[in-house]
Amino acid sequence: MEKDCGAWINLLSHKVKARLNAMLQDLGITAVQSRVIYYILVHCQDGPVFQRDIENVFGLSRSTATGILQLLEKNGIIRRESVASDARLKSLVPTERAAMLDSQVRACLRETDRMLTAGLSDGQIQLFKEIAAQMLDNLDHWDTASDCSSDKECPVSKSVHN
């Protein structure tokens, strides 16, 4: 039986995560943590980064993001600092340890991307990104749909959307 798009995406996701986890094991971080560290390091230069940014960018629930960030904080990779305008808000600030991990994390992410795209033309890579973005947009629209016009278009019970 031929795999559907979701099966291919799932397989790619698991393989990428497993390879990244193996590459990052000696650094004491996981694939997901590496991407969060990279995001914080890149974006903190433009202004404060908050937990809600991590949730939105990575599509994480609040509890999942909290768990990841608490572990990064416990391991001395980030710290949370109160924001002057609202003491309830805590910005995520990379520590010296995060800065030390930066080049290794970037190298692992680059190598993973190189392995993923080997044998693909620039045009194919661009097309993949466009298709993946459209699929993500499709899922976002599905998530926000309040009603489905038919069971064929929406195999999930309508009560899920209400």
UniProtKB/TrEMBL annotation:
<keyword id="KW-0804">Transcription</keyword>
<feature type="domain" description="HTH marR-type">
    <location>
        <begin position="1"/>
        <end position="137"/>
    </location>
</feature>
<dbReference type="GO" id="GO:0003700">
    <property type="term" value="F:DNA-binding transcription factor activity"/>
</dbReference>
<protein>
    <submittedName>
        <fullName>MarR family winged helix-turn-helix transcriptional regulator</fullName>
    </submittedName>
</protein>
<dbReference type="GO" id="GO:0003677">
    <property type="term" value="F:DNA binding"/>
</dbReference>
<dbReference type="InterPro" id="IPR036388">
    <property type="entry name" value="WH-like_DNA-bd_sf"/>
</dbReference>
<dbReference type="InterPro" id="IPR000835">
    <property type="entry name" value="HTH_MarR-typ"/>
</dbReference>
<keyword id="KW-0238">DNA-binding</keyword>
<dbReference type="Pfam" id="PF12802">
    <property type="entry name" value="MarR_2"/>
</dbReference>
<keyword id="KW-0805">Transcription regulation</keyword>
<dbReference type="InterPro" id="IPR036390">
    <property type="entry name" value="WH_DNA-bd_sf"/>
</dbReference>
